[in-house]
Amino acid sequence: MLDVLPVLLNGALVLGVLVFVHELGHFLVAKWLGVRVISFSIGMGPRIFGFQRGGTDYRVSLLPLGGFVRMAGDNPEEERSHEKGEFLEQPWWGRVLITAAGPLANLAFAVVLYVSLYMIGINIPTSPTRLGGVRAGSVAERAGLKPGDAIVDWEGKSTANTLELSDAIGASLDSKRGSDPLRFHVKRAGTTIELTIPRAEVEPLIDGLQWDTGTTIGRVFIGLPAYDAGIKDGDEVLAIGGKRVTYWNDISKTLTQLPDRDVSILMRRGGQTYTVVAHTNPEGKIGVEPPAPLTVRQSYPPLQAVSLGSRHTLQTIGQIYAGLWSFVSNPVRLRKSIAGPIAIAQVASQQASGGIMELVAFAAFISLALMVMNLLPIPILDGGHIFFALIEGVRKKPLSLKTQYFFQRIGLVLLVGLVIFSLYNDLSRVTQRHLASTDISKRLTAPTPADTAGAAATP
Prior knowledge:
Radius of gyration: 27 Å
Number of helices: 14
Oligomer: single chain
Helix content: 40-55%
Largest sheet: 4 strands, antiparallel
Order of helices and strands: HEEHEEHEEHEEHEEHEEHEEEEHHHHHHH
């Protein structure tokens, strides 16, 4: 079962900071435009504690499901004094600025986090250059490579890990032109041997290599098929669909050929085997990654970090929008993928276990997800208010209150339904995980005939 306290603390930290940044954006622009702020709340519902300053109630509320900035005159249903300091007395563009400031604050915060990560240094997983296997008939085999070899240098550059090897290969291809063969050395049974390869065959060389990584799982990602099936970190994959796997590349390639279907997976845990069935996603993945025996810290100068951080931000936004589109085009995937605060807290705790850098990167991603979601043109959300204000700017007059109320009620129903459904999904995942883990534990204690047969029948 979950270690609840770290999950709650890490989830509250990430969501609390991001909600604070979002609401701070609204707050600062409202103050700048002279709008009176009545309350600034982290969380929804009843007030737990806080303080009053400058006519504003700064508070923490009971329900950790967002937050709000309450401004004077922001509710058309309430009686207003029509003073300049009221939100609805602002011109349409002023209301757009105040409303858009929250999502844009999340955007700016994500950029700052990503740039900071690149400046401080990001941990890049890598592994030793020892070969576990060489594919028969491949370029690598023709070059003379054999299982057990360790590539120790490439064109005179030391290659202690696969990242250094990749960099050395790239540098040699960029600097050397023509048809001269490239030289590299391998260590085999304590002896260093020089091998050569034609320049034209360097790129397909890597395809024939199997790094000596094994099939032990380093991490199971929360909410994905392996998690639902009860697979744990440290479990070893033995076979997929009856096909033996020896290296991590075997796992990836076998699953890729089995997209969106139930797949039988033979696993080993603590010397005992068990079989699970996991339903792969449309890309043929189950949500696992190998352990990283080595990590390399890579940092960048400020200007390059700004460029990389900004590019990373844009790529992430594109991925989020692509994900939203895939949900719209495939509602079944939407049903399986919606996550709420429980899942976010779980993932935050999982990332925190990998170090502060992983937690910061996760916070940057969630900050961008909050921005994207809030900018959707749905009434109640920031995007809906912006949309109404833009319509007013075009029409030179606001929509009627009756029309606004109608769409806002629809938006409220959608939002409440989404919150309930996300919480239901979160609880369903936790329950499914617990049931699957319990079932595996029982079978490992008293192996069933099916498990024994599966282990024996696998080549």
